[in-house]
Amino acid sequence: MAQLGVNLLNQISFNLIEEPWIPVADFGLASLREVFTDPSLISIGGNPVDKISILKLLLAIAQAAYTPANIAEWQESSSTSMAHACMDYLDKWHDHFDLFGETPFLQMKGIKAAPIKSFGAVIPSVATGNTTVLTSYNNDRILTNAEMALALITQMSMALGGKKPDNSVVLSKGYKGKSNSNGKPSTSKPGPGIEFLGLQHSFAIGKNLLETIWVNLLTRNDIDSSGMYPVGLGYAPWESMPVGEDCENAQLLKSSLMGRLIPMSRFCLIANNGIHLSEGIQHPNYKSGVVDPTITFKPGKKELKPVWFHPQKKAWRTVMETLGHLTTNPNPETMYCYQLKCATQKLLSIDCPIVVWSGGVKVRTNAGEQYFSGDDDMAESMITLPYRADYDDWYESYKSELKQLDGLSKRVYGSVLRYYKSFNMKDALVAVKGSQMFWEYCDSLEQELLNSCDREDEMITLKDKYASLALQTYSELCHKRTARQISAWVKNKPYVEPYCLNKERYAP
What we know:
Elements: E1 22-24, E2 28-30, H1 32-35, H2 48-65, H3 71-76, H4 79-92, E3 116-117, H5 145-157, E4 200-204, H6 209-215, H7 220-226, H8 248-254, H9 258-261, E5 266-271, E6 274-279, E7 297-298, E8 305-306, H10 315-318, H11 338-349, E9 355-361, E10 364-366, E11 369-371, E12 378-384, H12 392-421, H13 428-443, H14 446-452, H15 456-477, H16 483-492
Antiparallel strand pairs: 1-2, 3-6, 4-9, 5-6, 7-8, 9-12, 10-11
């Protein structure tokens, strides 16, 4: 690995196939070769944006190396055979995975006219401009080659919109997509993995990293059936890089699955301790009926409606609605994630447990500039579905329990709000906090709910726990020290008896 401060123009090589740069949980940094040859690697590390970006890259490599025709052909393969195909593919394209050199990986030499920005401009956690530095983690600094590689990968799909990329540099002659109506450079649009407020991404998870890649492979039949990618799989951009924002290769990426895995939404070129940066290929979005297979959306009459990511809502509350396809007669109007639909079908076909990872980033947008503020954050969570021979009853029971929990959360909100109103304090923020605290307490019981929702005897005990959490939340926010407080506390205490199966315990 290169040392900090080295002149990158003199760097001979940093090949992503051979050099360690991918953060792996309980391992450290791994190279692409290690990822596809070491079955002991369990999962990708880093923050949720890193994980989404890296897994998309790994899937792009796997799809380019081996895309089965249908699920029957996929069943005949294995994670090991897929890994062998991937290594053959990487050996073939070895020189195209160098971060430097004549054909730098996923970089555009034509963008060199854009001024050099520090890498802090493309890393949300780094404070730039007049942003407050809270810890050394927020400081702008010189990155290692491994860190630069990761920053480059995240820019392909998960780039934030704003004015940091220089849109005065246009590579396709006559292209107007980077200009305002007055002809001046426009603000860069967010990457297709972010969009307006931040999208929710989901993947199925295997017993190790190789199996995770394998179960998330889309077959050619999956790609065609999606109806979103006119040219099908397409080709990996490193095989034939676009030369501009609207060139023939760019058009092919806009119409293919590969263009959703590696969208090249930013044109980049790594330079001396910095990066040349401009907006890249503008892809069709959900309004055009085209989305990443990994995002969650709701079908609409006129256009798809994306489910914006919320860091306080864990997977057990949001992802479950996307698993309606596990039932015999799924509702076509419920939330949908095409990646999970295809991956869970594969897992069920080989009798493997269904484990789902969900994550993303919530941002705010003002005049095209995206940033973190308030409760904006990155987050992730994972759930394991219990085995059921038939998921119809389980799915309906789980939806019913979530609906009842939502009602209990609203009871907490209303009780806290009324308590403070009795003291002429009409601050709804405390009531909002109460609802949030209740859900945070419920997060610790997520797996119990998944396992027990269709078993009434087990739900008696679990509902008791939820009712106790509702009362605990109320008590923590609403004091009962003085006589007046005690009176208000008793008067506004959440009425949880209708929720519980053990009604005698919580009767007023």
